[in-house]
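Sequence of Phosphoribosylaminoimidazole-succinocarboxamide synthase (Rubrivivax albus).
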Amino acid sequence: MDALYQSNLHSLPLVGRGKVRENYAVGADRLLMVASDRISAFDVVMGEPIPGKGALLTRMALFWFDKLGHVVPNHLTGDAPESVVAPDEVAQVRGRAMLVKRLRPLPIEAVVRGYLAGSGWKEYQDSGTVCGVPLPPGLQLASKLPQPIFTPATKAEMGEHDENISFERAAEIIGAERAAEVRDVALRLYTEAAAYALTKGIVIADTKFEFGLDEHGTLTLMDEVLTPDSSRFWPADSVREGENPPSFDKQYLRDWLEQAQVDGRPWPKRAPAPPLPDAVAAATGERYATAAKLLTGT
Ligand SMILES: Nc1ncnc2c1ncn2[C@@H]1O[C@H](COP(=O)(O)OP(=O)(O)OP(=O)(O)O)[C@@H](O)[C@H]1O
Ligand SMILES: [Mg+2]
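Predicted 3D structure, token representation.
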């Protein structure tokens, strides 16, 4: 399989290049989102691709959009990406692109957490809260929360880190009613997805959704959903309270980066990323593929 580090379509205007995707305008009201094989960690894009990752992410997102379509409208148009590019560009988009409605993105990320991990676990140890939400005492790393919690974040500019915010702050940014709607929809999406994933042996510890508004102001699910890029996936049979579970997501790459040395010093988590050994790229790809196989059966 040939890796695609970056798409370059000449037939459509480039709207933006994210850490993972290129977005191209298709007329005034649609976007062609092409998922490359790039991978980022600590908000830094690695220099090497993970072959097959873009197609795998796209497959998983399409699977979830289909499964969760009854909860909230999503940005899919149903049109084929191949239909809007030049013949010589089909290979760059096949299997890795989505042709979507161009929405007005809400400037917050809708994070839902069902288990204690990552920055949530750090904050809980300091203050007994996660993003300001008080939690009962006695929880450990990887503990299941009494119920899933909505912990919004601001969307950072390229190169910056997202910042956790309180629900009150989210309500100031997008309005109280809209914030409540986003919270309720995100919690329902997470709850349904987590219940399904558990039947496939996967715990979704946490995940991030993005929403936008369509031309009628209707809340619409956009971006990618419930992939290893936007979620923590743990093998259900190896989750033990107090232990860092093995994972089907970026955690393996993050762990490798944490111990990587650059000129005899720990890598400072700023670009440029240290070169990924082939074995690390391959092992990361295998974890993503395992998650996709377990969840979607492909
Ligand atoms: N339907 C949509 N309408 C408008 N924008 C969208 C839509 N779906 C996703 N997006 C935006 O497209 C971009 C996807 O690119 P990618 O996932 O590479 O970005 P990122 O690295 O996560 O974030 P950034 O673009 O801020 O660097 C995101 O900025 C996302 O908010
Ligand atoms: Mg993204």
